Amino acid sequence: MTTWGEVESVAPELAAAVRACFERGKHKTMATLRADGSPRISGTETEFAGGELTLGMMPGSVKLADVRRDPRIALHSPSVDPPEDPSAWPGEAKVAGRLVAVGQPGAEGAAFVLDVTEVVHTSIAASGQALVIASWRPGGQVRRVERA
């Protein structure tokens, strides 16, 4: 299992940028897989605590049923529109992985930590002329791609 603390250890600049994007607002978007394999997006709240990226779900929610069937998810940070100067945009972040249940089985709701499989931060280059995509996967190095 790859914890958020491990991401911070091996890719500190990327982890800081991603965390800043996630912490700029309360509501994030989570993608899960329905029983038929099609995607479902839902709102969720996350927290970075004790080296973990955590989240919870209400009992009986469809996203909880999705996760119990297939724990793979993707999370997207709150979005903000780019300012007049596109290079000043703080970007957006995505994190993917598998949810691992924590706490008491059968307790009200469900709490999870994320086993991280991918971290991505997208921003605008200082020139304002290119999209910069920084990504990381366990066992790899941070990869940066610029697209004009």
From TrEMBL:
The keyword Lipid biosynthesis belongs to this UniProt entry's keyword annotation: no
InterPro entries hit by this protein: F420H2_bilvrd_red/Heme_oxyg, Split_barrel_FMN-bd
Entry keyword annotation includes Oxidoreductase: yes
Keywords: Oxidoreductase
PANTHER family: HEME OXYGENASE HI_0854-RELATED (PTHR35176:SF6)
Identification of the protein by name: Pyridoxamine 5-phosphate oxidase
